[in-house]
Write a structure and sequence with these properties.
Blueprint lengths: L19 E4 L2 E9 L7 E5 L8 E5 L3 E5 L4 E4 L3 H5 L6 H4 L3 H15 L1
Length: 112
């Protein structure tokens, strides 16, 4: 869940910040932050006005396709799954193992 799938065409070292993010049912925002740490990679999506400026952290395993040319990332989640995910507060949750476990449980529960 916390690693990019080889089929996603993600190339390590590629900056994903600013890429548009598309859920399975439409646009959800843009990448505000991305990591490529082995076993704990994720993207942070700024949803802008769509969810009143909420940021969400998505495990790298939810990324199904990275299109560098179009600067677009497709994820295997719906807008509702993303909207209902635990809210991300970078000041509070960055590096927080308990938050990451909570997020992992949300996605493991069949929410994806």
């Amino acid at each position: 869940m916390w690693s990019y799938n080889p089929e996603s065409h993600y190339t390590p070292g590629t900056s994903l910040v600013g890429f548009k993010v598309e859920a399975s049912d439409g646009h959800i925002g843009k990448v505000d932050e991305a990591t490529e740490e082995v076993g704990s990679s994720y993207i942070v999506v700024d949803t802008g006005p769509w969810i009143f400026g909420k940021e969400v952290l998505l495990p790298a395993g939810t990324v199904v396709r990275v299109d560098v040319k179009e600067e677009t990332i497709n994820v295997n989640l719906t807008k509702d799954q993303i909207k209902d995910s635990p809210e991300y507060d970078k000041d509070k949750h960055r590096g927080d193992a308990a938050y990451r476990d909570q997020l992992g449980q949300y996605y493991d529960r069949g929410n994806v």
